[in-house]
Amino acid sequence: xxxxxxxxxxxxxxxxxxxxxxxxxxxxxxxxxxxxxxxxxxxxxxxxxxxxxxxxxxxxxxxxxxxxxxxxxxxxxxxxxxxxxxxxxxxxxxxxxxxxxxxxxxxxxxxxxxxxxxxxxxxxxxxxxxxxxxxxxxxxxxxxxxxxxxx
Length: 151
Ligand SMILES: CC(C)(COP(=O)(O)OP(=O)(O)OC[C@H]1O[C@@H](n2cnc3c(N)ncnc32)[C@H](O)[C@@H]1OP(=O)(O)O)[C@@H](O)C(=O)NCCC(=O)NCCS
Fold this sequence. Notes:
Elements: E1 5-9, H1 15-25, H2 32-39, E2 44-51, E3 54-64, E4 67-75, H3 84-98, E5 103-109, H4 113-121, E6 125-134, E7 139-147
Parallel strand pairs: 4-5
Antiparallel strand pairs: 1-2, 2-3, 3-4, 5-7, 6-7
Residues 25, 73-75, 80-86, 108, 112-115, 117-118, 121 line the site of coenzyme A.
């Protein structure tokens, strides 16, 4: 993919593209209200990736004491498997560490192979499992975490 890419902190102006990518990425997408809640939360970190001026991916999470919880990560289906997801993940972890978090935690669908591989390659390890955590389709959640103090 040619063109310039850069990271941005997300705001309400990105809502339309966020929803487009979200709806094409998840069977149970977040609502606009879900995004608005996190975008307005001072304890959240909402990072976007622009390519040639267009939003192609995002990573959102929130702080709870010294933990950073990665709540959402997605890349436009047309732009996947080119390293953008990994770049977004590494950047949000670094920003979270710079803001004082020492650990990142997340939940991922057991059947979501792409995301589980991505997280494992980024240094996350599975630390637990919640049975029947997701619906439509039903699935277990794998709980993953990694130390981010030294990033
Ligand atoms: C998960 C997701 C963000 C990955 O984004 P991406 O830009 O395609 O990821 P990358 O190209 O950076 O790939 C990162 C690593 O994951 C692995 N990976 C990516 N897609 C994969 C797939 N379908 N199967 C197996 N491994 C995969 C790659 O091997 C890659 O490692 P490498 O760079 O060493 O080859 C993207 O697939 C997505 O948006 N999925 C839908 C939303 C989602 O499931 N989000 C996660 C919620 S927990």
